[in-house]
Write a structure and sequence with these properties.
alpha/beta, Rossmann fold, five-stranded parallel sheet, 12 helices, 49% helix, 8% strand, elongated
Length: 306
């Protein structure tokens, strides 16, 4: 039995992906025998990397499924929802119906909270949420959200987090300190599996540096309209929608030449492919070693002319 009390609802979240998934498997082993999972386990995933799903939109389907009799009398059911938008502060990429009115998501959330509090315990089944945080994408669980509060008050919520990776990586890149950067990536890279926080931290820093260079070279820092046309709408992908202190930090003196930054950014695409190989790939490069090569080459590149 896992170190969690029996509950109708669970939430495992954080940036330690392996630990989150291990907790998920422990609960599954305890509440639903493997031989029943083909019929009695239902899982909901986002459609793409970085996306979320809207639990409020899934609720009718989930509640209906739990209300139906199982093929095996009295057999338990379990539903797992990965990355529900309602748990994340600022998450806005969950799939929504085009016909939704502005307040429909809020009403759906209120209905979902009531269902968890009143109806779910009566079903005798298990609902589990998995929330994979990504600091580089500014995706973190909001522990004050109504959904989080409903889960924690009626079930089990546990966080699995490491020390923030992004700030160590960002500081090393901005200071052009290769030793600190390699040490940070090796400390935070999970054995045998790329740590998404490491990859995301590097990519975000490179993106911000490129945007700062473009704005500086085109003298756009004081022209919000032009900046809005050039850079993404999402705050986590746009230096000029980040915290003002972050924007000021990147808009200081240029640290790298734009051409070298673009070369490194392109190199990180190869790292991503190594992290997410396709089934038909004949050869898969070592993602960690490849990323270190990309970064060392950048940090040793010629400095911009003063």
């Amino acid at each position: 039995m896992p170190p969690y009390s029996k509950a109708p609802v669970y939430l495992f979240y954080g940036n330690q992906v392996d630990a989150v998934l291990r907790a998920r498997d422990q609960v599954l082993d305890a509440v639903l025998p493997a031989e029943l999972r083909a019929e009695n386990l239902t899982e909901y995933f986002p459609s793409g990397a970085g996306d979320t799903v809207r639990f409020g939109e899934l609720l009718d389907e989930i509640a209906g499924d739990m209300a139906m009799l199982s093929f095996i009398p009295e057999a338990p059911k379990c539903v797992v929802v990965t990355n529900p938008a309602e748990l994340f502060s600022g998450a806005a990429r969950g799939r929504a119906r085009k016909t939704d009115k502005p307040d429909s998501a809020e009403r759906a959330l209120e209905h979902a909270v009531r269902w968890i509090e009143r109806d779910l315990p009566q079903t005798g089944h298990t609902l589990m949420f998995i929330a994979l945080e990504d600091e580089a994408a500014a995706r973190e669980v909001n522990e004050r959200s109504p959904l989080f509060q409903a889960i924690s008050h009626n079930g089990v919520a546990r966080r699995f987090s490491e020390k923030k990776a992004f700030f160590r990586i960002e500081e090393a890149i901005l200071s052009r300190n290769a030793n600190d950067l390699i040490q940070a990536t090796r400390d935070l890279w999970k054995p045998g599996k790329g740590d998404q926080a490491v990859y995301g931290g590097v990519v975000r820093t490179l993106r911000y540096l490129i945007q700062a260079n473009v704005a500086r070279e085109r003298k756009l820092a004081d022209t919000p309209a032009e900046l809005a046309l050039l850079f993404p709408d999402e705050a986590q992908r746009n230096l000029f929608k980040a915290n003002p202190s972050v924007t000021r930090k990147y808009l200081g003196r240029a640290v790298y030449r734009t051409a070298h930054l673009l070369e490194a950014y392109q190199g990180m695409l190869d790292v991503y492919r190594a992290l997410r190989p396709r089934p038909d790939d004949l050869y898969v490069a070592d993602a960690q070693g490849l990323m270190e090569q990309v970064l060392v080459r950048l940090l040793n590149s010629p400095r911009p002319a003063r």
